[in-house]
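Try this one yourself first.
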């Protein structure tokens, strides 16, 4: 009983009345799409009920996993592995003057990303997979209905998506500094940090990353080998590692 009361209070405290409504609706299969209007957020958010959307939502807005205890006025934010746009929305409401480039490879997630960000200005959504070079990537479902990884393949088919590198994004949008770089790419950090990171990583001021050795062994090793070339201050927050690069 106390746990139930604690959950209700926490939902209300952080999310307002929308949190209580979400808490009730998520238990019913009737509601395929949950529409949530958060306190102090400009526009409502759509979530797919009975999917990992809810877990990501709680991570971003209840656990505040992307809250930075550091004064910033970011001009450019890159969201690699944007999923349905929740971290993008968090950053946009916190830093409304920022330009955000959100990259998501999986088609159904990308459609939700477009829905959730369409009312905001200066958000660019790209249907690509993040990689260390131009390539074709095959999207492969994992055990969870909404979890997936990507791998490089030679030929295109209905399950492939084009890859884009952060170097390409920097060149395409004439970026001279990445104020916040968020990376949650389901193990592809292994390839991302394998090579071709030297140019864009030195432009990065704050890096937020979730590592996935369970999906791709060697992901952490690849990342730390690259980041060790820089001076930084690291903070662990929930599943994320936050690096303030000097």
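Now uncover the answer:
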């Amino acid at each position: 009983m106390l746990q139930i009361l604690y959950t209700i209070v926490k939902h209300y405290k952080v999310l307002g009345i929308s949190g209580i409504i979400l808490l009730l609706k998520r238990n019913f299969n009737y509601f395929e799409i949950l529409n949530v209007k958060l306190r102090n957020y400009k526009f409502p958010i759509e979530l797919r009920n009975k999917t990992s959307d809810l877990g990501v939502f709680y991570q971003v807005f209840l656990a505040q996993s992307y809250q930075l205890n550091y004064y910033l006025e970011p001009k450019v934010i890159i969201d690699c592995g944007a999923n349905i746009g929740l971290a993008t929305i968090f950053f946009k409401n916190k830093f409304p003057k920022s330009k955000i480039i959100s990259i998501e490879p999986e088609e159904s997630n990308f459609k939700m990303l477009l829905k959730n960000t369409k009312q905001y200005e200066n958000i660019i959504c790209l249907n690509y997979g993040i990689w260390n070079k131009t390539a074709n990537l095959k999207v492969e479902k994992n055990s969870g209905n909404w979890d997936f990884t990507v791998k490089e393949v030679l030929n295109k088919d209905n399950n492939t998506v084009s890859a884009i590198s952060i170097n390409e994004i920097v060149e395409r949008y004439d970026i001279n500094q990445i104020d916040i770089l968020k990376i949650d790419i389901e193990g592809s950090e292994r390839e991302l940090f394998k090579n071709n990171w030297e140019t864009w990583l030195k432009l990065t001021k704050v890096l937020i990353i979730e590592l996935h050795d369970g999906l791709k062994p060697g992901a952490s090793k690849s990342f730390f080998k690259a980041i060790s070339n820089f001076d930084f201050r690291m903070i662990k927050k929930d599943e994320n590692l936050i690096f303030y690069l000097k």
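Discussion: Residues 1-63 form one domain. The CA atoms of residues 141 and 148 lie 4 Å apart.
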